[in-house]
Amino acid sequence: MTNKAYRKHEGVSRSELNILLTKSPMHFKYAQEHPEEDTPALLEGRAAHKLILEPETFTEEFAIAPQCDRRTKEGKETYAAFVEASEGKEVITADTMTKIYEMAEAIKQNETAVEFLKGLHEQSYFWIDAQTGEACKVRPDCLAEVDGVKYIVDYKTTESCADGAFERSVKKYGYKFHSGMYREGVFQNTFEDYRFAF
Predict the structure, then answer these.
(1) β-strand partners of 153
(2) Residues 52, 91, 93, CA angle at the centre, nearest 5°?
């Protein structure tokens, strides 16, 4: 299942529930009724995940925009041909592609990251929460086994590695709740307990 299909599938996601947890029920209701436009950061994050976790199918979901001057006739024609050929794909710039390629290469240089990212990538899980009757969904980056221990592994970027920076992101983006919901979703589908690693 593609990420796009997963996002359209019935069920409330961790990011949606985080609005309820960190803001209010009214914010949650508004977000459900008025989906936000995609941001460049979200698009870049999806592209980075795809390249790092599923490089073999990257070009099935993403297209790299040509560097051309769309003010000229030739540039307009080049871009129009690109748009036609890329129908249904998410478009990223060449600069973004360079950045995420460098991120992917950096991951390959980190032995721990390589070990934790071996496994089953981008599987979608769906279940009905027994307490609320709510349809739920999660899509872990990776299910891995390291030294005989099963992990749900989540790949995250961060603005800074300075002391406390990632910890602030953990709080701001509800990563504690994120790990709990992912563990529950995987358990409801596999009946196995997994630890969680960022």
Answers:
(1) 142, 197
(2) 80
With tokens 């196995």, the residue in question is 192
Selected residue with higher pLDDT from 131 and 7? 131
Q: Under a CB-based contact definition with an 8 Å cutoff, are residues 40 and 47 in contact?
A: no
pLDDT at 68: 87
Residue 158 pLDDT greater than 80, yes or no: no
Mind listing the pLDDT tens digit for each residue in 173-188?
A: 888 888 999 999 999 9
Lowest mean pLDDT across 33-42, 55-64, 128-137, 178-187: 33-42
141: number of Cβ within 10 Å: 23
Please say whether the beta carbons of 168 and 105 come within 8 A: no
Rounded to 10 degrees, the C-alpha dihedral 62/6/177/24 comes to: 100
Under 8 Å between Cβ of 88 and 63: no
* Three-state secondary structure call for residue 172: helix
Q: DSSP letter at 72?
A: S
Residues ≥6 apart with Cβ < 8 Å to 151: 116, 143, 144, 145, 194, 195, 196, 197
Token pair, residue 177, equals 């709740």
Could you give the count of Cα atoms lying within 13 Å of 119 in the half-sphere of its Cβ? 21
